[in-house]
Amino acid sequence: MRASRRVNATVLATTVMSLLFAFACSGGDEPTSVTAPPQAPDAAAAAQPDGGDAAISESSIPQTTAEPPPAPVGAKLLVGGDVFLLGTTNDGFALYIANSYGDGPLYAVSLAGGAPIQLAPFVHFSDVIIQGNGVAFWTGVALNPLRGTLNLWTQATGLRPNLGMTVADAAYFSDDGSRVAFFVNPRPLASPPRVDLAVTNVAAPSLAPVISDLNQDPDTDLAPTCTPHLRYVGPLLYTAYCTVDRPLQSVFRAVSAAGVVTTIIDNTIPANGVQSDFSLDATAQKAFFVGTNREARVLTMANGSTTVLDTNVVSGTGIISADGSTALYVKEIPPVSEEDVPYFTLRRSPTAAPSPVTLHDAFGSLLASTASLATALFTVSGVLPDGRSDLYLLDTIAPPGPPTTLSALTTASPVGFTQDGTQLLYLSDVGGSSGQGTLVVRNVATGAERTVSNKATRVRLAATGTKVVFCESPVQAAAPGDHSTCNIASFDAATSAAATVVVQKADPYFFSAGTQLVFALMWGPSRGVYVKDAP
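-> structure tokens emitted (535 positions)
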């Protein structure tokens, strides 16, 4: 499948997010093979997961001879007919393809109503990225290397079509949608493979690279040695990547809104050796890296000083708090004899004055945390291919003690913390075949839990606040060509005692847009894209 050949999703994150965590290279002059589950690259990603939001497999949904969905009560029809809903922008537009099969004309329509805007006569759904206020899509996509003609759209700038050939299916917008980064000039057959990075204003886009010769094969999901990572803070883009002349050691750079590139960590100096995965605090005052010698390092941007927190740290496991005061990471404890095996521990340390504290031994992987890192959700056994795992909750600030067991068996699925960190949501007793589970809300401060639904899946957390929407009681229509449906329910994780069904028998493709729910009916006489206020 084409989607499997995209540039690693951690490089240019979109969406939401199946697994939260992807990590880059194992570094060092002699790379060490370290086996540990991946985890969050930064506190913001860990605090706002879309756990439980993976696409629903129709083969796993109970079958029924369901009647076509009725016209939804109290909803506004934005566009009627065959649709394939792709998502929404933060500034109030829904993106869809004008058929139900995922390839065809691409449109944007305002959630306030009005005429749809055609962006392209033909695209494939996997070649569209919606991120924040920005939309990037590629036409004429070819393989080997994966490339296509880039097109950009935001409400503020309008359509910027046919910009030229870039690496397809990889673009990264700043939060306000005014800036975008993407890869150009892929050379997968060079030795080593390489690609260039363009960073430009969406209003007047340019494909001219600002950084050349990143050591990356853009036609696979794997970099030769390490994967480029990018993070925006305002209009400033930070990136760490390996260079073709030093494929085991990353350079760390910033690209300003004016396109000026500043080198922060020079990889020509051996003592500076870091791996490409990094975590930034909310204002980019501090950055967490794992050194090529596996040191946990914190870089203070203002003066360029580096503080070593610990040693023997697992690649890609560091995460810094939003205020930059604390870091969580995984340390490998080597075997003491030939009969023993290494194990992993979750550790916390202040970033100013290192004093590592072991929080939990026999650690699996971090699944989510609050932005402050005060509370962490993790697994010991690891995550199964179907997304289920055991679940444990840990207070990282209190003196080390046993975690709270949410599910000792690998039958749970994490959803994540609300944006304010006050509520934790997870699915318990998830059926391996149905994907449905019991949706539980836990108050982080008090530990009080309540059950919202016994047949929940595809749970979405609002980007701000405590609003939650989810798919309840999904069923698959029996007739060939029909689509699975579910009841879409909504509630406030902080205040609601129960969920309210907003729409009955909608397709399980829906998006939360502030206080509104955007959803699609993809079969039956009431087909179309709708918007409705969610209680």
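Helices lie at 43-47.
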